[in-house]
Design a protein that fits this description.
This protein is of the alpha/beta class and about 220 residues long. The protein is built from five helices and nine strands, in the order H-H-E-E-H-E-H-E-H-E-E-E-E-E.
Length: about 220
């Protein structure tokens, strides 16, 4: 398929990533194999490979593919890692990480998103554990994890997630106030603390506690 949501769009995405210093054929292949267009409503598929946000159910939005790739690249997945994803959304990023060999537990506060994502993942034959849960504190009972990735912003450094990572484990999350541009941070567990590296920026919704009241 050609066009902005097919091969041409994917090729343009790869060029943008290479310009940012990311050149990983396995990662690019995972993004393509996960069938991104299948996770996007028909009216938005023309923007599938664009860097812009894409509306999804429950008044939420899917991150642009550039941000998704940058964040997943920073996880440095080599296969076999247990990954906790907070913010299932459409299920696409969970599918990408599963294609990279990760064992993914993904959670979202909206039941509708979890159910729809689970259906999409099943249709393409990807094994991911999707849960309807409050992600603001993670899932301590299922940890520790090798990696944690969060698609919503913390206002302060999420030190309480240290307990949910193995020694040397990595967490990727936006950090900053909701009305400001946030910093994407890479946090590596060292003892009982994090080593921090700033790797980019984003503007995402704040991480909310609790479950979606009606959805």
């Amino acid at each position: 398929m050609s066009g902005p949501n097919g091969r041409e769009g994917h090729a343009a995405f790869i060029l943008r990533m290479r310009a940012r210093g990311i050149d990983d054929g396995g990662l690019f292949s995972a993004f393509e194999t996960a069938r991104r267009a299948d996770f996007i409503a028909p009216q938005w598929r023309a923007a599938a490979w664009s860097p812009g946000m894409i509306p999804i159910a429950c008044g939420e939005a899917m991150e642009g593919v550039d941000l998704q790739c940058q964040a997943i690249a920073a996880l440095d997945l080599t296969g076999g890692e247990r990954v906790l994803e907070i913010g299932t959304g459409t299920g696409y990023t969970a599918a990408v990480m599963a294609q990279l060999g990760a064992r993914v537990v993904t959670i979202d506060r909206y039941r509708t998103l979890v159910e729809e994502a689970s259906s999409r993942l099943a249709r393409i034959g990807v094994s991911v554990a999707a849960r309807h849960a409050d992600g603001s504190r993670g899932i301590l009972s299922e940890g520790p994890f090798d990696r944690v990735i969060v698609w919503a912003a913390f206002e302060q450094l999420p030190r309480h997630f240290v307990e949910q990572l193995v020694s040397g484990g990595t967490m990727i999350a936006p950090l900053g106030a909701p009305e400001e541009r946030q910093t994407i941070v890479r946090l590596v567990k060292v003892g009982s603390r994090f080593d921090r590296e700033d790797i980019g920026w984003a503007r995402l919704q704040p991480l909310k506690s609790g479950l979606g009241a009606a959805l």
